[in-house]
């Protein structure tokens, strides 16, 4: 039984039924359909905080999925899990891989900026001013890119860029 069907949530059940219907009528390969099932099950596990299970499903989806755009979202979600677990270096690797396949992924750019900002704060707490400035500059660079792609999003980042004088800085 697919993972989402274990949920009692009406929206999840509805999504599963619609996704299954679409999968049956779309002219896609068996591998693409299986990749989508793994991706869907990964999203369900991730939403329930079952990160190990989600990663297993995402890695299976990556084995089967050939479409670069779809792969970018799988990689992005893997990055989310590593970020949630505090494994920022791994998260950055997956966010960058996602961006290599899909450069129009503002949420990945934002999450990279958040990690750099966090690292900047940690360095500032340790009085490591050069490292802190470097991390904040990197955060600014990625937030500017995210805001360029999604101008109505990331209002807090826009405010931070304005107050720190990084809004119009050159990359």
Automatic annotation (TrEMBL):
<feature type="repeat" description="TPR">
    <location>
        <begin position="35"/>
        <end position="68"/>
    </location>
</feature>
<comment type="function">
    <text>Seems to be required for the assembly of the photosystem I complex.</text>
</comment>
<protein>
    <recommendedName>
        <fullName>Photosystem I assembly protein Ycf3</fullName>
    </recommendedName>
</protein>
<keyword id="KW-0677">Repeat</keyword>
<dbReference type="GO" id="GO:0015979">
    <property type="term" value="P:photosynthesis"/>
</dbReference>
<comment type="similarity">
    <text>Belongs to the Ycf3 family.</text>
</comment>
<dbReference type="InterPro" id="IPR011990">
    <property type="entry name" value="TPR-like_helical_dom_sf"/>
</dbReference>
<keyword id="KW-0793">Thylakoid</keyword>
<keyword id="KW-0472">Membrane</keyword>
<dbReference type="InterPro" id="IPR019734">
    <property type="entry name" value="TPR_rpt"/>
</dbReference>
<feature type="repeat" description="TPR 2">
    <location>
        <begin position="72"/>
        <end position="105"/>
    </location>
</feature>
<keyword id="KW-0934">Plastid</keyword>
<feature type="repeat" description="TPR 1">
    <location>
        <begin position="35"/>
        <end position="68"/>
    </location>
</feature>
<dbReference type="InterPro" id="IPR022818">
    <property type="entry name" value="PSI_Ycf3_assembly"/>
</dbReference>
<dbReference type="GO" id="GO:0009536">
    <property type="term" value="C:plastid"/>
</dbReference>
<dbReference type="GO" id="GO:0042651">
    <property type="term" value="C:thylakoid membrane"/>
</dbReference>
<keyword id="KW-0802">TPR repeat</keyword>
<keyword id="KW-0602">Photosynthesis</keyword>
<feature type="repeat" description="TPR 3">
    <location>
        <begin position="120"/>
        <end position="153"/>
    </location>
</feature>
<dbReference type="Pfam" id="PF00515">
    <property type="entry name" value="TPR_1"/>
</dbReference>
<feature type="repeat" description="TPR">
    <location>
        <begin position="72"/>
        <end position="105"/>
    </location>
</feature>
């Amino acid at each position: 039984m697919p993972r989402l069907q274990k949920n009692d949530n009406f929206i999840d059940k509805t999504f599963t039924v619609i996704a299954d219907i679409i999968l049956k009528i779309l002219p896609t390969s068996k591998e693409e359909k299986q990749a989508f099932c793994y991706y869907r099950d990964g999203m369900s596990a991730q939403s329930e905080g079952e990160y190990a299970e989600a990663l297993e499903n995402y890695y299976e989806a990556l084995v089967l999925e050939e479409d670069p755009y779809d792969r970018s979202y799988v990689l992005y979600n893997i990055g989310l899990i590593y970020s949630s677990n505090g494994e920022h270096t791994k998260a950055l690797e997956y966010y960058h891989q996602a961006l290599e396949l899909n450069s129009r992924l503002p949420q990945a750019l934002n999450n990279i900026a958040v990690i750099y900002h966090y690292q900047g704060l940690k360095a500032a707490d340790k009085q490591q001013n050069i490292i802190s400035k470097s991390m904040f500059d990197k955060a600014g660079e990625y937030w500017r890119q995210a805001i360029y792609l999604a101008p109505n999003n990331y209002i807090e980042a826009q405010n931070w860029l304005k107050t720190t004088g990084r809004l119009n800085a050159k990359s």
